[in-house]
From TrEMBL:
Domain of life of the native organism: Bacteria
Organism for this UniProt entry: Williamwhitmania taraxaci
Protein name: Uncharacterized protein
Length: 217
């Protein structure tokens, strides 16, 4: 009886530790999200909320117009992550499209697609970057259940947004401009560019090409 009692208390202790660890992890993610959002909003100011709405409207427009490069929007449940990271010049942003594969019974993975924004002459233009495939077996036991958007955000904090901030020599947080290297050092077609004008033209060319490649419903 004593042994059974000891086992019972060991199980309770183990469960308590797991719950505590999970709670701490969630708390750290929330704190990191708040920190990143605070710095990003201090740069974008009132534009942050406006651009979040604009980003969601853009996704709806891509889906409604059946743009071929964004066909996945019609195949999966997608939403823009609540966090958007702006560079110090407030002319580039990196966000994430959370992709939950709710409608397939044979593909047991979900994903994240990088969402890029570039400001050219006061106007913002959006396009996507790399995609990350997330096999459910790495994140949960039940591979038949899609990863929740909360879980996808948690993964995005690590796989997409990690590195947005860095500490300077004084130990204070600041925006890490290298975080935007993929859309700062290269043009929209992933080529090095020579002038700002050529960079802007590459973005406009890509956005225009996306709209020219409409699918037929």
């Amino acid at each position: 009886m004593l042994n059974l009692g000891n086992r019972f208390y060991h199980v309770i202790a183990l469960v308590s530790i797991l719950i505590f660890t999970f709670s701490c992890k969630n708390k750290n993610i929330r704190q990191e999200t708040i920190l990143y959002e605070k710095y990003s909003k201090s740069i974008a100011l009132d534009d942050y909320n406006k651009l979040f709405v604009s980003a969601n409207d853009t996704l709806k427009s891509w889906k409604t117009n059946n743009l071929q490069d964004y066909e996945f929007l019609n195949l999966y449940a997608c939403r823009i992550d609540s966090l958007m990271c702006f560079n110090s010049s407030n002319n580039k942003l990196i966000g994430a499209i959370l992709v939950s594969n709710e409608f397939s019974y044979t593909n047991f993975s979900d994903g994240i697609t990088i969402f890029n924004g570039v400001r050219i002459k006061k106007n913002w233009y959006f396009f996507t970057g790399a995609s990350i495939v997330l096999p459910r077996e790495y994140y949960e036991k039940d591979i038949h259940t899609p990863l929740s958007f909360e879980k996808l955000h948690e993964i995005a904090m690590k796989e997409v947004f990690s590195g947005y901030l860095k500490k300077n020599l004084q130990g204070k947080w600041e925006v890490n401009e290298d975080f935007f290297g993929s859309i700062t050092n290269y043009d929209a077609y992933n080529y090095p560019y020579s002038t700002q004008d050529s960079y802007d033209k590459s973005v406009l060319k890509l956005v225009r090409a996306n709209w020219e490649n409409r699918g037929i419903k």
